[in-house]
Amino acid sequence: MRKERCWNNLMGAAAKSAALSLCVVVLAGAGFGQSLSGRWMQPGKTLDNGEQQKWILELKQNGNDLTGTLKSLDYGVDLKGTAAGNHFELFASWEPTRPFLTGDLVNGELHGMERGRRPVLAKPAAAADDISTVSYIEPPPLHNVPDNGLAKTPPMGWNSWNLFAGRIDDQTVRTMADALVSSGMRDAGYIYLNIDDTWEGVRDAQGNLQSNHKFPDMKALADYVHSKGLKLGIYSGPGPRTCAGYPASYGHEEQDAKTWAAWGVDYLKYDWCSARNVYKNDALQPVYQKMGDALRATGRPIVYSLCEYGWGSVEKWGPAVGGNLWRTTGDIRDEWSSMIGDVEKQVPTAPFAGPGHWNDPDMLEIGNGHMTDDEYRTHMSLWALVASPLLAGNDVRTMTDATKAILLNKEVIAIDQDPLGKQASPVKNGDLETWVKPLANGGVAVGVVNLGSAAALTTVKASDLGLGGPVKNARDLWAHQDVTFSSGVYSATVASHGVLLLRVSAK
Ligand code: GLA
User: Fold this and answer.
1) Is residue 464 flagged as an active site residue?
2) Domain presence at residue 46
3) How confident is the model at residue 115, as a pLDDT?
4) 317 lies in a domain?
5) Are 494 and 451 members of one domain?
6) Is residue 360 annotated as a catalytic residue, yes or no?
7) Rounded to two decimals, what is the model's pTM?
């Protein structure tokens, strides 16, 4: 999977412009003498739909000045730079201070480095080596897409990307469905089984998008998932290509929505990716609205998950395009700094969360092995406190008892699923960060996270919790036991990167 990530970083560059990584670029140029002008090409990997990924670098040299573009199936970037003798330096339009590509012309090949990290090697592009361009489709005028009535509490389920990336297939989805049932995850609320990127095939003669060889019969798979009491999610995007380079829904919005509805799809994650090669950020709302309308027109209840990394203040217009949730950040990684960074980034969006429309700091990494159990308990607690979707991203077929105890903690899930739908906000005091979430019954959930590297004592004061009266009952949701506030305070030691999570009700 991590090997695959290397390619995906490149192919998913629309989502991660700053993290673009050219794993190995073989660029080839023809007929240049000492000039760098020309078209250079690297074949990439063959996608699961049989298409060949490739990178075309088109350069124009004028004296010492170089201009050009780099294009792949899903990505395009303008480049500008200089040539001095055989040496060249190129800068991406989004990062004018750090070279994107540096290298030398050696025996008719370009040899160099991408972003100082990855080797580049070069050859001439043949006439047939091209990336087809799409014609511009004007975004529609704005209107309000009526609320679909779904996701009254944050959606819960499982998504394939964090662990499987491009290795997801029909069999894995089926065994995951079985495991969601046998592990008790389904009964705890994890209902949506979401297939992320790399399921896509090619379009048939009528333009219908088919699944690739890894998913021989999507309708049959949906039937299987439904027979287990689960719902099926799928992935696409408004650009011509997904982040992994597969065909996406540009110009086929209604047709694709109909296809998914006919398969029995219940949830769509719609990822901006290559749409940024076509549209500027001011088109985010109308472009997302287009799919909101298309889903609605199918007549099937389909949860609509916007994935555009929090760009363009999505929390302000997400509901108007029919969105039920929207990502507020880039991609989560299975590490403490990424997890904490994501949840802190969405603090300003708190007023916009509520029944039917949720801020999404990305899927869970619990159980994927690169954080401690304390850190995973903090991850789960924070996602519950901020009313985030709970989409597990681990292998639910082989969970340790510790992972099960975290993902299946019903008292914590109840905080996430509280019908009032409020998103907690934090107050920082040294290394301790206290998040308070008002609950429907007038009580609160309070989480104290220890960001420091040593255990620390915390004192929770009832007077800070905004309760309507004195504490009636308080419970530690990880220890699963009632605790007592004496004289209006409760003190406990919190492990480094750990959490104290209480549910407190008022008289
Ligand atoms: C983007 C998204 C991820 C995942 C990948 C799939 O990076 O943010 O969550 O869907 O694309 O290519």
Assistant:
1) no
2) yes
3) 85
4) yes
5) yes
6) no
7) 0.91
